[in-house]
Amino acid sequence: MTAHQWRIGPAPVDGEQVDLAVDSHRGLRGPYTGLGSVLRQLVPQAYERWPDLVQRHLTEILSAAPELRGTLDAAPETLTSLAVPEERTRIYPANRTRRLAHGATEFLAGYATRAGRLPLRLAFDRVDQADPTDQEFLAIFLRRVRPDVVRVLVGTDGAPLEPELTGALDRYADRLPELPRAAGPAGRGPEALLRAYVDADGTSTDPAESAAYQQADPQVRAALHDARAALLRERGEWSLELGAIPWHLERGSDPAGAGAEALYEAARHCGALGYYHAVIDYGTRGRAIVDPDTQMERFWLLSTRASSAMVVLGRTVEAEPTYLDLRSRYADPELQMSTGYALAMLYTRFHPEELKDHHLARGYINNSIAIASLLPDPQKRAFHSVFQNNGLALIEMRLGRVAAALRLVDDGLDRLDRELPGDKHRLHRSVLVHNRGKAYLALGRLDEALIDLTRVIELDPNYADYYFDRADVRRRLGDLTGAVADCDTAISLSPPFFELYYNRADLKAELGDVAGAIADFGYVVELEPDQLDARVNLVSLLLDDGAVDAARPHVEEGLLRDPADARLLHLRGVLALADGAETDARRYLDEALAADPGLVAALASRAALAFDGGDHGRAVADLTAALAVDGDNPDLLYNRGFVHEAAGRWAEAAADYDRALELPGADRAELIGRRARCQAELDGTAAGGPGGAAGRPDLAGAR
After folding, report:
1. Least C-beta-crowded within 10 Å: which of 74, 312, 390, 596?
2. Peptide bond preceding 66: is omega within 30 degrees of 0, i.e. cis?
3. Whole-angstrom distance, CA of residue 566 vs CA of residue 348
4. Separation of first and last alpha carbons in the chain
5. Comparing C-alpha atoms, which of 23, 45, 19 is closest to residue 111?
6. Which parts are the TPR repeats (predicted)?
7. How many CB atoms lie within 10 A of CB 173?
8. Is 289:251 a contact under the CB 8 Å cutoff?
9. pTM of model > 0.85
């Protein structure tokens, strides 16, 4: 099977043998420049032939290629996507782009398979200049799609790549010979070179074009940028508003006006979709071209767009000075209120643990609550007071005052109902109901939590995360079938994310649906191979099901990613035992216990190996160590009793059987029979004279 390919340097003049080649430079269309360009060309024909395939991936298609919205049925809307900007109080998590990338990967693989174009050959050029969304997509695409289905050519110019993409290229792509860079067309005068630079929309790498641009009259340059921006806008392609158009306008005749406005709109759009690296870029560029003294509101909004994106990406220490700078610059009440809320959330929720300070957070939020109470507009006063008190509720939760948090949320919902029209702030009402449900859950009031989560689903039926949360409550209430149904609904509403499948796999395993659990855990590690908990569970289920050969590659892949993971080292030992390679098994089990001396499963497995070799002392020692970690495990007690019995230590065996009989989950019939045998030996009445137990311990739970 021919591998994917990686070319560093310019594309050959005659081009590679590909079906579709796209330029991925983020300067053209911002996030998903490359993926969006592919989708714009393939989706319309796919929609005509296989509308079900497109419908299944509408969210990811329309997120990466927004121009297609007018030609496709709309994706399911949520209150988040429908909220007007001033009412948007919930943002997507940073990993949403991974979900989009997985969905787009499955769409393109499905398209290639249905079209019979195997392999579909796609080339993505200038990937080192691509937005992190495209680089993340390509890393996932290279890993998940077989090159005999879609063969990918990644072209770069030698600049650093995102680490995940570098790793994917090193593992899944063949490196092509680097080609020399050709000079631009000869004989062009300064005017042609200048125009070529501008028409390249900020992506030119030709030194002659760059020099001509730098030497040109600034007014001439500005006029060319204005004209180019106007020409691009005539095309009516929204993604150009995320790349080339703002680049031209911030260099045109009105950078602080039209340029800053274009950057703000790009930041707003990308913030709503979770493209946070781009938001930081737009916000930082916008701050540089506006006057903070005469354009306070624009400077404030561009600043907080960028800092909020940093927070979501975990760059909280970098974000905090922006909020403090704004507070020191302006006395505007709403600015002070909003930055106070942001700082409170940093100190109670987002900062690293060593920097969190819930009491400082409460000081910030109380100041914001005071400001909100003084706002002159009644509706604004009501909304912002409730919003700020919801922040205080979170702080109270973090301080362990769950009842106080619940009262704040209840009061907020009552106030919204009293003081705001029912069609106002629907999103925030749903957030409050959801938060109250989570508070009930924290208090152990599961029935009330279920009522609120059901209510929030009625308010916002297309938001997948609510079904995810309700599934957790239903599981705790013992309604495993209902929990699976909620997971199923969430899966139908969202691009793939591993947590949903992980939870459904656990539920299926509890329900005895081993095949279903294996399939879901298998999909989890396909989506995110570094999810070692899922991999361990998958291998354990495969081994329990007798599928030893199917388990092997999962163990080896896991150890490739984390060679020191004790659980995987143990499972490699279990596989060696299945092969009869006892020496290798003992080495692997020793390695597992060197990595984690308290790993019960490895201690139990090594005890079994020692028992089979006649070393009863080692077997007892390992089982005793396991019981020091998990003292209420009836299977471990049974096993140690069995080893004692085999060694003729009847009193010790009987004591272990007695203790096991006191514990839930014990095999009472087997334990009573073994206990009777020990008592008979102790009484001297056993038939056949002295002797050890027959067989070997039942090492339940060894994996």
Report:
1. 74
2. no
3. 34
4. 35
5. 45
6. 430-463, 498-531, 634-667
7. 20
8. no
9. yes
